[in-house]
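Exercise (ungraded).
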Amino acid sequence: MLLLREVIGSNLRAHREHQKRSLRDVSASARVSLGYLSEIERGRKEASSELLASICDALELELADLLNDASTDLRHRAFIDERSGVAETAGDKEVRLVFGQDEREVLSV
Amino acid sequence: MLLLREVIGSNLRAHREHQKRSLRDVSASARVSLGYLSEIERGRKEASSELLASICDALELELADLLNDASTDLRHRAFIDERSGVAETAGDKEVRLVFGQDEREVLSV
């Protein structure tokens, strides 16, 4: 099961990397230590709500958008987990491939 | 500005009340003290990711849905704040009424 800090952390990292910004740059803007920001991105430390707001500010990112992306990631992960659970139960490579195909179809909607 | 713990807390409370469950009931299921759960619902304490997962379990609520609702609330709040900001700048009751009407139109889409 994915925890909130893990899904938020990986989304923060994705936004920072998409902007081609360094941990040092964002940590300075958000007034958080580089090490702590790195731990947050890796989902190892919880960010307080104030700190999260500050990191979002530094990334010029709306908290609403971050939460929306996190929600989408969690649904996607639950979908994959559910599918792979069924495939594992079936214990059949061909079944797994079929599920892989279904997944692409659904995800490309 | 709304903080994450405030918007999550009020959504947790709304879900609990919608299910007509008491703080005592949910706190026992989620294995958190009644007082702490109450503080979380009021946005006064941060819930760790593990505790949040536990409260969601107790409410039979997907974390993805909670985050999606929180995202929607934040957008709604930002929209209202923006509108009232413009109306206040205009300092005119009639302008405020027009904005109120726009708001209902947009919200009813």
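Further reading is listed at the end of the chapter. For now, observe: Confidence is low (pLDDT under 50) at residues 92-109 of chain A. The radius of gyration of chain A is 17 Å.
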